[in-house]
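Worked example 2:
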Amino acid sequence: MSFKAVLVHRCSSSSLNEGKFFECTCQHRVTRARARKLVSDGHADWMRRQDDSENLNQIILIPRHWVPAATIAKGHIERAYIENRAPERERIEVYGETH
């Protein structure tokens, strides 16, 4: 069984994506169907050519930004109710209403 393999870029050079050639050591490949799914889900973008068309043989992974989860910790509770801080108490109440 043969399939068209799409090169997956994870390198820092790929963040340029200006249609210019760059050298990298990326070797990971996925099927064309998997590449389409990654692009449609927003996890990747098609590599651009010099004429600004999409290069369907290469994709660039979009880096994820880590966002801390909103939680209430022991310190928040102590500041809100033991130290009697109104902003902390309000934060806990808002959190309780939204979760």
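The helical segments are 32-40, 74-82, 86-98. The beta strands are 5-9, 29-31, 44-48, 54-61.
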